[in-house]
Amino acid sequence: MTPAREPWPREPAESWPVRVAAVAMVVDALLLIAHVLHRSASVLDPDGSWFFPFRRAALWNGGQDGSLVEFFGLLQLGAAAVLLLRAGLRGPARRVLAAWGGILLLLLADDQFRIHERVGARLALDRLVPSLGATTAQELGGLLFWAVSGLLLVDGLIRLHRRSAPAAQSASWRLLVTVVPFVLVAVGYVLLGVARPGLVVGPEGEAVALVRIAVKLLTMTLLLVQALRLTASRP
Questions:
Q1: What's the whole-model pTM score?
Q2: Inside any domain, residue 83
Q3: Contact between residue 68 and residue 55 where contact means Cβ atoms under 8 Å apart
Q4: Which residues of 172-198 are buried (b: 16+ CB within 10 A; e: fewer)?
Q5: Which domain holds residue 99?
Q6: Based on the structure, what is the number of domains in the chain?
Q7: CA-to-CA distance for 99 and 161, rounded, in angstroms?
Q8: How many other CB atoms are found less than 10 A from the CB of residue 12?
Q9: Which of 13, 26, 188, 191 is the 20 to 30 Å CA partner of 48?
């Protein structure tokens, strides 16, 4: 008599976030390497015989709108937002997660429609402070927009955090820890451009920009992983 086959063991739901994180991190690394090759092609390959695909295609420039770095980051951000909204709308004890999803959607909309850039340009801070360049004034105005908007968003987030269950509160704290490094780097980059404009150009500027791009991309990956973990564990 042939012995009955044992059922194939089911893979724990918690392993999916790990797999997604591994794949996303590899893609992140490849895109960041492509960005470095694009920005340094003229130095590494002056004749243009090896790095030609990376030299001309702005698609590889992670600091520009429409780049593959931006697309992949926004794809992860949008997925994380949808998952958090889905998790947060399952009950009133999880509303703080829905609030996080709404904030990520707002960030996605800002990237797509350049909201803070337009507001920063409208503020025209270079008229108030003539020493500021137009680009620096726009970035500083955009930072001011986010400072005001952030106060309103944080106030609503705190209210929902207090009303949520302990598991959802713990998840909210983890999301906050994930976002804080990106916020600090983004604010620091703008303030550095205001205080020392010459530092954000040349080789030093390329290094600073790479740090900003890498932190932004990795933050979006970690947000997606956090959202997947919440979906798997269902707090």
A1: 0.88
A2: yes
A3: no
A4: beebeebbeebeebbeebbeebbeeee
A5: 63-233
A6: 1
A7: 9
A8: 9
A9: 26
